[in-house]
TrEMBL record:
Species, as recorded: Lentilactobacillus kisonensis DSM 19906 = JCM 15041
Name of the protein described by the UniProt record: Bcr/CflA family efflux transporter
Chief location of this protein within or outside the cell: membrane
SUPFAM superfamilies referenced in this protein's UniProt entry, alphabetically: MFS general substrate transporter
GO terms, molecular function: xenobiotic transmembrane transporter activity
Record Gene3D superfamilies: Multidrug resistance protein D
Entry's Gene Ontology BP terms: xenobiotic detoxification by transmembrane export across the plasma membrane
Top-rank taxon, per record: Bacteria
Keyword line: Cell membrane, Membrane, Transmembrane, Transmembrane helix, Transport
Entry-linked InterPro entries: Efflux_drug-R_Bcr/CmlA, MFS, MFS_dom, MFS_trans_sf, Sugar_transporter_CS
Domain Major facilitator superfamily (MFS) profile: 13-397
Gene Ontology cellular component list: plasma membrane
Record family assignment: Belongs to the major facilitator superfamily. Bcr/CmlA family.
Positions in coiled-coil regions: none
Length: 401
């Protein structure tokens, strides 16, 4: 296991892996400002255009279950390069299409291909580092990854003033092809042949699902997925809460949303700085407890205060702690196995996407005339996550699966 990188190489690796892990979210956030124009240009309904978003999310979830096990069989680099080559080609096809139905299909394929970056960036890091070194690396990786959701809508909104929506997908194609070149010349293979799974490729899939027989692992991925559920509860409800309920302007809400995104990035860095003094498990227990307390205060404020400055502070503290927890739980889970880290990462990503996808519409069903549904949803997710995490007994360390 290589751990003796100089600072320059480590920064380059963080930048590359951070970028490839963000291409999935980037393919969603970048084109959000263009949705109204796409609806008019393709002569379709808003609901069909929004299906292109759902199709991409579905592709991102399912794609991790494909690229993760394949990387355990064939190594990390080859699936990544194939994935981003397809990502670039499909992005060009999307820019050329005039059919909303073809758009939906291509967005699904784009999600499948982009998923390779999300799942394999985690696997590559766990191939190279372990213990506190892995936590420190994930801290830097998450910080880079967290910047893209903040800047992507801004970039997309700027581009749409000067080019059509097709230009956004041309940019995604360029990003995909540039990453293929960067991977080819800038990143070596991190999974030696002797550590790869043998036999038929389906054997890698079987071994991946074999992790689900371990009750400790299931609790961990559910606890992590519930943190993602809390985050998506905030994301899906925040515009209604701050713009409709608190009557905040679009500009002020955009600034607040970006500020909370920065909070997530800052939170992601914190565990790396504490890794040498406190274990990942002890940090996670403390932050889970403090997050539950923060969300209880947020819920109480919805019942008794409805004070905007207080809500802004409590939401910022909550999402910042999400950033801390994403780094910690990812490091804990990826430290569990000495083999099949691609499959391990795939199940982790599936849990986050699935629970996040469930919570997003659920918050809307609960109502939008108050921020109580958002607060209750976040609090419920975090309380259940804490219960699951604290119920795990025994050592959580390298090779415990």
């Amino acid at each position: 296991m290589k751990t003796s990188f100089n600072l320059g190489k480590r920064i380059w690796l963080v930048f590359i892996l951070g970028t490839i892990s963000a291409t999935g979210p980037l393919s969603i956030d970048l084109y959000l400002p263009a949705l109204p124009e796409m609806t008019r240009d393709l002569g379709t309904s808003a609901s069909l255009i929004q299906m292109s978003l759902s199709a991409c999310l579905l592709g991102l979830a399912l794609g991790q279950l494909i690229s993760g096990p394949l990387s355990d069989k064939y190594g990390r680099k080859r699936p990544l390069m194939v994935g981003f080559s397809i990502f670039g080609l499909v992005s060009i096809l999307i820019a050329l299409t005039n059919s909303v139905y073809l758009l939906i299909l291509l967005r699904f394929i784009q999600g499948l291909a982009g998923a390779s970056g999300q799942v394999l960036s985690r696997a590559i890091a766990s191939d190279m580092f372990s213990g506190s070194l892995l936590t420190k690396f994930y801290s830097m990786l998450s910080a880079v990854n967290g910047i893209f959701p903040v800047i992507s809508p801004v970039i997309g909104g700027f581009m749409i003033q000067y080019v059509s929506w097709k230009g956004i997908f041309i940019l995604l194609a360029i990003i995909g092809f540039v990453l293929v070149i960067a991977l080819l010349f800038g990143v070596g293979e991190t999974l030696p042949v002797e550590k790869r799974t043998s036999g038929h490729p389906l054997e890698s899939v079987r071994e991946m699902f074999g992790f689900l027989k371990n009750a400790k692992f299931v609790r961990l991925i559910l606890a992590t997925g519930l943190v993602s559920g809390g985050l998506f509860s905030y994301i899906s409800a925040s515009s209604f809460v701050f713009q409709n309920f608190f009557h905040m302007s679009v500009q002020n809400f955009s600034f607040l949303y970006a500020l909370n995104g920065i909070g997530i990035a800052i939170g992601s860095i914190i565990p790396g700085g504490l890794a040498a003094r406190f274990s990942e498990v002890s940090q996670a227990k403390f932050v889970l407890s403090s997050t539950v307390l923060t969300t209880i205060l947020l819920t109480l404020s919805a019942l008794f205060f409805n004070n905007l400055p207080l809500v802004i502070i409590l939401v910022f503290l909550t999402v910042t702690q999400f950033g801390v927890l994403f780094t910690l739980t990812t490091s804990i889970i990826m430290n569990l196995s000495l083999r099949n880290n691609g499959g391990l990462s795939a199940l982790l990503g599936l849990s986050q996407n699935a629970i996040g996808g469930i919570m997003s519409p659920l918050v809307g069903v609960m109502g939008s005339n108050t921020y109580l549904p958002m607060a209750l949803s976040i609090m419920g997710c975090m309380l259940l996550s804490m219960i699951l995490f604290f119920s795990i007994h025994g050592k959580l360390g390298r090779g415990n699966l």
